Protein: GMC family oxidoreductase
Organism: Paraburkholderia caribensis
Amino acid sequence: MQYDYVIVGAGSGGCALAGRLAEQCPDATIALVEAGPHTERNLFVNMPLGVAAVVPFRRKTNYGYLTTPQPGLGGRRGYQPRGRGFGGSSAINAMVYTRGHPLDYDDWARLGCDGWAFGDVLPYFRRAEGNERGADALHGADGPLSVSNLRFQNPFSHRFVNAAVEAGFPRNDDFNGPQQEGVGFYQVTQRDGQRWSVARAYIYGRARPNLHTIADAAVLRVVFDGKRAKGVEVMRGGLTETIEARAEVVLSAGTFNSPQLLMCSGIGPADHLRALGIPVLHDAAEVGRNLTDHVDFTINKRVSSAQTIGFSLRGFAKMVPGFVSYWRSGRGMLTSNVAEAGGFLKSRPTLDRPDLQLHFCTALVDDHNRHMHWGHGYSLHVCVLRPHSRGAVTLASSDAREAPVIDPAFLSDPRDLDLLVEGVRLSRRILDAPSLALCGGRELYTRHGQTDAELRATIAAHADTIYHPVSTCRMGGDEGSVVDTQLRVRGVTGLRVVDASVMPTLIGGNTNAPTVMIGERAADFIAATRRATPRQALAGEPVRVT
Ligand SMILES: Cc1cc2nc3c(=O)[nH]c(=O)nc-3n(C[C@H](O)[C@H](O)[C@H](O)COP(=O)(O)OP(=O)(O)OC[C@H]3O[C@@H](n4cnc5c(N)ncnc54)[C@H](O)[C@@H]3O)c2cc1C
């Protein structure tokens, strides 16, 4: 099989790129190759509350990775769910639509990523966004990624927002508006009460004859002609085949699997590759390095009210009308994303932007919902927005179908634990404010009056990811970076990386929308390269992409 472009991975970055590129280059053929299944008809993916079922377990649509034992977490292995199938992680995520702080992108530009300051990326956020609130200077209304207000808001989420205001935090109804700081309800990537994964947004329901989707096909490595990428080797239905790319190969396999595929293809730290018997094509020390993720701690509180989602006879009884309402009109409790409300706080008022994020969940979400409890409750997550700890992704095997070794090195930099302690103390102010305090309840692992040392031990025993790993194929203007500022892999030609792994630093917010923005920008880069490429090269001769 031969195409002009072969995109590996139909996640947030890959779907946005494939859909937009197909539209911009109608004369180009594109293959979007995905290891997992199609998700168009998957009830647990489409129904927002299905998030509670798809995240906790390794399954066909979730890699359910484990990290290496984390010294900062008392030696525990962290859990890293990652979407598998069309939509990638956007098919299993919590649908929260935030972009990070404008200054985060200005930082990218300052670090050498010319053309990636907030003013440069805002048009791409707007182009992607289909916000039901309408367009303004910061928002788009006509883009494919539907952004909606929640159709169902649990009374406890309202209590959380009221309590936070009582505790002195500002109310914010638009975290992507002129000010990020404050507390309120999140907007979500949903349309008509359905999850709007990036596959739904850019791929499904759009007839594009030049875009060919290939499901259940695991890419094993990139194939090269000298140093020029010319296709990918794929395992499908037990058979290995090569899909050729006349113009470019793009890796959009995500923060764990894009560096894995680069290394399996001979691009990475030479010593590590040699140790696994992989011939070195290009010695790139930073492939897999700089892994950064939002480390998060949750205060779980059990309450007697059955208004939150929980396991009880009253809870089960509510599910039946909930299902009917969802089925008939796309409304009701099953359209909840669980993490309905939250906010961005500053640990010190003098900071130029918030350094902590809250997610308020209307259920007892303990250990990614892997530890289930009988009864009802709520959970207040707090995470460190710009952690200093840096981890790495390395190979366990030269076979890309095996899980890579994931070491986020959580809390290896003591500043992250110090800030998380601050975050828990700020969160407690909200829990103690009248609107929530009057509901009573009992905390599962934390308690009032804990000393600093006790709180640090509790954090080490329970903290983990809130699912935003980035930076393992860092973009930069410097030679040490894995990709340049047009996302081209350094040291070879005809190969780009387009997903969350290229972020030079972790932005202060949720990472789906920024990854879609990266996919949108990449489509422009690739279309511009195509326009600049001589016609005869497009007709069959190898295309030299500079
Ligand atoms: C549980 C969870 C909750 C989250 N909640 C939110 C949220 O509420 N809001 C938000 O903004 N962000 C959230 N995120 C983060 C966000 O969804 C991700 O940052 C984003 O989807 C990453 O996009 P990506 O393109 O980098 O990778 P992914 O979307 O993960 O896509 C990678 C794709 O590549 C495929 N692939 C991998 N290896 C291969 C191979 N060898 N061959 C072929 N295909 C391959 C995978 O199967 C996958 O489909 C959450 C993530 C998770 C896991």
Observations:
- DSSP finds 15 helices and 24 strands in the chain.
- Confidence is low (pLDDT under 50) at residues 540-546.
- The longest strand covers residues 239-251.
